[in-house]
Amino acid sequence: MKKHRYGNIEDLILVVRVVTVNGTLERAEVIPRGSISSDVRSLIFGSEGTLGIITSAVVKLFALPEVQHYGSVLFPSFEAGVAFMYSLTQAGGQPASVRLVDHIQFLLSMALKPAPTRLGSLINRIQNVYVTIIKGF
Fold first, then answer.
1. pLDDT tens sequence across 114-123
2. Is the pTM of this model over 0.85?
3. Is the CB of residue 23 less than 8 Å from the CB of residue 66?
4. What is the 8-class DSSP label of residue 132?
5. Domain co-membership, 107 together with 136
6. Alpha-carbon gap, residue 117 to 130, rounded angstroms
7. Average pLDDT for residues 65-74, to the nearest whole number?
8. How many domains are there within the chain?
9. Contact status, residue 16 vs residue 57, Cβ threshold 8 Å
10. What is the CATH number for 37?
11. Which of 2, 5, 27, 98 reaches 20 to 30 Å from 60, CA-CA?
């Protein structure tokens, strides 16, 4: 989820040990980008377990950020959200994770959440009225 800052899983795993289908233990290390050979790690990750099972990995670590902020922004249209994402990219300093979802994707994510308590349900209704009726979204 935070690949904007830290990269994809292929960028975070430095060394993997894999038990292959014929029972051998292989070790795949980081290969320089200029290398003429194949990056075995990419094959292993891309195979999703069909070429072998990862039994251990050396993972690149990052220091925890000094500050973490989480938030949401509502846009009157999807196009306005796209424009915001474009301006965010142009401004630099991109957050570790940012997602733009349309209303259907949002409803699906809400449907997958656990059922709220009575108080949580009341708060959700108040928020819904505020966003849809008062703010007009």
1. 777 888 888 8
2. no
3. no
4. I
5. yes
6. 20
7. 82
8. 3
9. yes
10. 3.30.465.10
11. 98
| Dihedral, CA of residue 29, residue 33, residue 38 and residue 41, to nearest 10 | 40
> How many Cβ atoms are within 10 Å of 44's Cβ, its own excluded?
22
Residue 65 placed within a domain: no
User: What is the extent of the structural domain holding 76?
Assistant: 71-100
Distance CA 33, CA 44 (A): 17
Please check whether residues 81 and 107 belong to one and the same domain. no
Q: In what order do the strands lie in the sheet with 52-59?
A: 25-29, 13-20, 52-59
Q: 19 by DSSP, 3-state: which?
A: strand
Helices (H), 28-117: 40-47, 78-91, 103-111
Q: Would strands 25-29 and 13-20 be described as parallel, antiparallel, or unpaired? A: antiparallel
Q: Per residue in 78-102, pLDDT tens?
A: 999 999 988 988 887 677 778 888 8
Q: Quickly tell me which residue has 């975070």 as its tokens.
A: 12
Say how far apart CA 29 and CA 135 lie, in whole Å: 53
